[in-house]
Every structure is written in structure tokens, then in C-alpha cells.
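Propose amino acids for all 143 sites.
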């Protein structure tokens, strides 16, 4: 359906959040590759919230939905910086994962955030032991 939509030049662009979840405003997590498989031009946007007046991030392990809603509704303001970045297209020999990572890197750099190689599922699941071991091996190679 996305391919059909972007093929029709009379239709407006689609707004997609490829992380699939929200994070604490310090990092950009792994993008879901589906948005980058359909072709077309990607118009990256970096969004970073300024928590000085009110924090838009919801830590669902710490606050209930009611508490979060109350905090947002009673905050002084929700302020964010938005940067519209140059359009990007998938290169000829590039697969969807590499294209997603390239777009993610541009967004993270502009927003002053770090890139994370994992997705939002780690917020609610235990980290796989093999992933921990892989990171430990990488760290040992650095040291």
C-alpha cells in the first residue's frame, strides 16, 4: 500500500517514525527496514525535545499512562527542535538495512544524538546473552 501511495504523485508524503517507539532523547535506535524497502525519496527529519519546561518522554516502566498524561498536561510547555534534512534516496547497490542506517546516521548527527544498533524491544525484554558476548568481544578488541 505504501508503494501505491508513493507512486501517485498527487498524494501527499507519508509521515513514518521508523524506530517504532520513543526513546529518552539521547539516542536514535535501529530503524525498521520496511520503510526503506519501498523505494521513493526519504525526507529525513531530526526531532529532539528540550526537557527544560516539560519532558515529552514517557518511561512506561516508571510512570503509568495516567501519570504521564497528567505530567504532560500540567507541564509549562513541550518544546522541541525540528531539523528538516536534505532528501535521500537509496543507492543502486544499497539494501534497505544499509539505507536505513545511513538515514539514521544523518538524523543522529544533526540532532546531536548517538546511534544505537538495537531496537526498542530492549526496553521491555532481557538482552540476549549472545548479543552481550558480541559487545564484550568488540570492547576487548578496542582495549
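Proposal:
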Amino acid at each position: 500500500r505504501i508503494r501505491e501511495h508513493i507512486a501517485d504523485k498527487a498524494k501527499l508524503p507519508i509521515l513514518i517514525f521508523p524506530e517504532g517507539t520513543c526513546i529518552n532523547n539521547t539516542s536514535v535506535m535501529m530503524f525498521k527496514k520496511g520503510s526503506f524497502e519501498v523505494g521513493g525519496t526519504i525526507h529525513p527529519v531530526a526531532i529532539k525535545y528540550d526537557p527544560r519546561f516539560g519532558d515529552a518522554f514517557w518511561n512506561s516502566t516508571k510512570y503509568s499512562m495516567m501519570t504521564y498524561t497528567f505530567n504532560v498536561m500540567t507541564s509549562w510547555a513541550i518544546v522541541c527542535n525540528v531539523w528538516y534534512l536534505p532528501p535521500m534516496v537509496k543507492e543502486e547497490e544499497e539494501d534497505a538495512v544499509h539505507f536505513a542506517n545511513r538515514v539514521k546516521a544523518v538524523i543522529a548527527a544533526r540532532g546531536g544524538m548517538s546511534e544505537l544498533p538495537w531496537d526498542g524491544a530492549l526496553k521491555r525484554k532481557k538482552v540476549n546473552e549472545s548479543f552481550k558476548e558480541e559487545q564484550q568481544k568488540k570492547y576487548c578488541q578496542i582495549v
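Residues 1-46+84-142 form one domain. The CA atoms of residues 27 and 114 lie 5 Å apart.
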